[in-house]
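Margin note from the TA: students keep mixing up input and output lines. Inputs are the sequences; the output is the structure of the whole complex. Example:
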Amino acid sequence: MKADGVLFHAKHAFMPNSLGYCGPDEKGQIQRDLEGNRSDEELVQTLQKFEAAYPFLKLIAKSAGRQVFDYSVPEAYWIGNRLLDLVPVSDFYSFSHHEIKGRDPEKVREVFRQLDGTAPPHHTFYVMSTYATTAVPDGPNVRNEAKRKIAELVDNCRISWGTVRKVGKNELQVEARRVSVDDGGLSLTSPVVKRVRYNPEIRPFGTVKAGDVVSIHWNYACDVLTPRQVKNIARYTDADIRLVSRLMKSKEDRK
Amino acid sequence: MCLTRAGKVVSASQGRARVEFFDGRALDDVDVSVVNAKKGAFVEVFGNLALGVLSPAEAKRRKQAWTEVARAVGATRE
């Protein structure tokens, strides 16, 4: 079970790391280990160097009484499952102040104050609430071009999901919903067809087929999801969007 | 996952910039058009998009926080 959790986590952390947005400079190790289906100690040590993702896993694992790389822990963080509901909001609040150093403490307080302690330690919530509390000029009412760029950023950075329609050599055509930013907050569009990269050397992508549902991070297919995971990612993403839209609305109301 | 990272714009042209982050890393193609940041500005970057401009005082505080993170995870690449 532990091995699967390491690889599941690595699959979802891989692309933003390779783009230079987070984690250590691991010189291709994650990709090599994923292609070789190896979850050895070296990979674990690399994943422990991610400044935010690993502390989130520790938080969830501690609350659930599980090992950090038990499959259910990274699954809760990236996709969403009932382990998120076991994290006391006071622990998440304290964690957000002391473990995630990149965030402004006042903005963290704002999130928790506005949401009355309903914030989940879910990756998508982190991404969306970061946008909602970052000092973009004019906040949610930014001009259209900026709005499009921000929606694209949030969409790339969250874990999205899509149904495979066509399988190419290194590219999948998927039907997926995008994030839209408007004055009422965030929402998901109707499904659109888009292209995402994938690596057929990484299991189970050697046998990926039309109809499979894949998780996506920075336009890269991370894993093939089970029906339970599809249900969960939709449910937790919806909840994240509702919370963050509330946050954005309260920010607007205070102007 | 992406962290919000703070850093300094060291060169900028047509809305794109090289940003050197306080954690010792750098990105060459940050979109700074949303915040209209110029060379010398301190910016807050999420992924590859600058979402905020920081005052020098706030930038100094963030730099200190990042130094603590780097020390904690042993991930500095100097």
